[in-house]
Design brief:
With about 100 residues, the chain is an all-alpha fold. It is built from 3 helices and no strands.
C-alpha cells in the first residue's frame, strides 16, 4: 500500500515536471514572438526616422520654389504694368483680391 502511494507521488511529480516543461516552452515561444513583433516595429520606426531628413529637404526646396514663383509673378506683373496702362487695369481685374480668397 505504501509502495502504491509512492508510485502515485512519483507519477504526480513526473506529470508536474512535464506540465512545467510545456509551460516553459510555450512561454519561450511567446517571448520570441513578442521580440519579433518588437523588432518589426523598431525596423518600421527606424525607416520612418530615416525619411525625415529627405522630407525636410523636399519641403525646404518646395518653399524656395514657391517664393521664387511669387517673386517672378510680382516682377512679371510689374513689367506688364509698366508697358501699358490698359494692361494694368486688366491685371487688376483678373487677379483675385485677398478678400475673395477663402481663409
Amino acid at each position: 500500500m505504501v509502495w502504491a502511494n509512492l508510485n502515485n507521488t512519483v507519477d504526480d511529480l513526473q506529470q508536474t515536471q512535464r506540465e512545467l516543461a510545456d509551460r516553459f516552452a510555450r512561454e519561450a515561444l511567446d517571448r520570441k514572438e513578442r521580440q519579433n513583433i518588437y523588432q518589426v516595429t523598431m525596423d518600421a520606426m527606424n525607416t520612418q526616422i530615416g525619411q525625415i531628413a529627405p522630407l525636410q529637404y523636399q519641403q525646404s526646396q518646395m518653399l524656395e520654389k514657391v517664393s521664387e514663383n511669387k517673386t517672378s509673378i510680382a516682377q512679371t506683373s510689374g513689367l506688364i504694368a509698366s508697358l501699358s496702362p490698359s494692361a494694368t487695369s486688366w491685371i487688376r481685374s483678373s487677379t483675385p483680391s485677398r478678400r475673395s480668397l477663402p481663409e
